[in-house]
């Protein structure tokens, strides 16, 4: 999984930031974007790191701490449902990546993103198709973003009981739809999403 990063390091580029997000698809909760510069992608401590979706929740939680310890620098950014509604999901994603990169304590020499290019970024960058499966730094960022967001949604489950946020993390499921019909739309639902907009209009 270090092919891309290995090629960059072979050319003398070592401060490589991987960037990824969690929460594009859900209709509730924030979009979370993480950026990370790893000290050494070949470190044995990172051997289990891969696309966050290919890992169990327990392993992701364990790797969250490991990645932080193996990072030269990392940042995690939240984009609120209100901002998503105001500027749109795709623009929020790009803006979140830009903020995450600029929030790093160390300026990267190169940035690898998962699938989406960052227009206007002064730092050389590459959008990698299925990047969280082929670039270790992107995989590490995906774990940071996923674990951080899942923790938020577990907190939202306590704040908004009855919606099942701890289980589905804001994605549309039959149980989530039933709860929306019974309990209505909350502050953390994305009002610009079609299913939420239709409920808001009909109430």
Spell out the blueprint of helices and strands.
Elements: H1 3-10, E1 16-22, E2 31-38, H2 57-69, E3 71-79, H3 81-87, H4 89-102, E4 110-114, E5 125-128, H5 131-134, H6 136-159, H7 165-168, H8 174-183, H9 194-202
Parallel strand pairs: 1-4, 4-5
Antiparallel strand pairs: 1-2, 2-3
Helix pairs in contact: 2-6, 3-4
Give a quick precis of the structure.
A hairpin with an 8-residue loop joins strand 1 and strand 2.
Describe the structure.
With 203 residues, the protein is of the alpha/beta class. The chain has one domain (3-197): Nucleotidyltransferase, domain 5 (2-Layer Sandwich). It has helices spanning 3-10, 57-69, 81-87, 89-102, 131-134, 136-159, 165-168, 174-183, 194-202, and strands at residues 16-22, 31-38, 71-79, 110-114, 125-128. It has a five-stranded mixed sheet. Helix 2 crosses helix 6 (136-159) and helix 3 (81-87) crosses helix 4. The longest helix has 24 residues, at 136-159. The model has no long low-confidence stretch (mean pLDDT 94).
Number of strands: 5
> Taking strands numbered 1, 2, ... along the chain, how are they ordered across the largest sheet?
3-2-1-4-5
**Major sheet attributes:** 5 strands, mixed
The third-level CATH topology is: Nucleotidyltransferase, domain 5
- What is the helical fraction, as a range of percent? 40-55%
- In quaternary terms, these chains amount to single chain
Give the second-level CATH assignment, the architecture. Answer: 2-Layer Sandwich
Write down the Rg.
Answer: 18 Å
Q: Segments where pLDDT lies below 50 for 5+ residues?
A: none
Helix and strand string, N-terminal first?
HEEHEHHEEHHHHH
What's the number of structural domains?
A: 1
Return the average pLDDT rounded to an integer. Answer: 94
Number of helices: 9
């Amino acid at each position: 999984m270090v092919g891309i990063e290995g090629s960059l390091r072979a050319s003398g580029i070592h401060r490589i930031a991987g960037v990824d997000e969690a929460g594009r698809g859900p209709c509730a909760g924030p979009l979370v974007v993480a950026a990370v510069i790893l000290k050494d992608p070949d470190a044995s401590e990172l051997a289990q790191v891969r696309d966050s979706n290919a890992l169990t929740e327990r392993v992701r939680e364990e790797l969250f701490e490991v990645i932080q310890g193996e990072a030269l620098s990392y940042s995690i950014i939240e984009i609120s449902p209100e901002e998503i509604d105001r500027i749109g999901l795709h623009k929020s994603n790009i803006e979140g990546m830009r903020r995450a990169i600029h929030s790093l304590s160390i300026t990267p020499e190169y940035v690898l993103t998962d699938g989406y290019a960052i227009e206007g970024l002064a730092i050389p960058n590459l959008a990698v198709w299925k990047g969280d499966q082929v670039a270790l730094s992107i995989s590490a960022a995906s774990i940071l973003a996923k674990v951080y967001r899942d923790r938020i949604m577990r907190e939202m489950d306590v704040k908004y009981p009855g919606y099942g946020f701890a289980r589905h993390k804001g994605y549309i499921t039959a149980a989530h739809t039933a709860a929306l019909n019974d309990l209505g739309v909350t502050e953390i639902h994305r009002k610009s999403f079609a299913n939420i907009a239709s409920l808001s209009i009909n109430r």
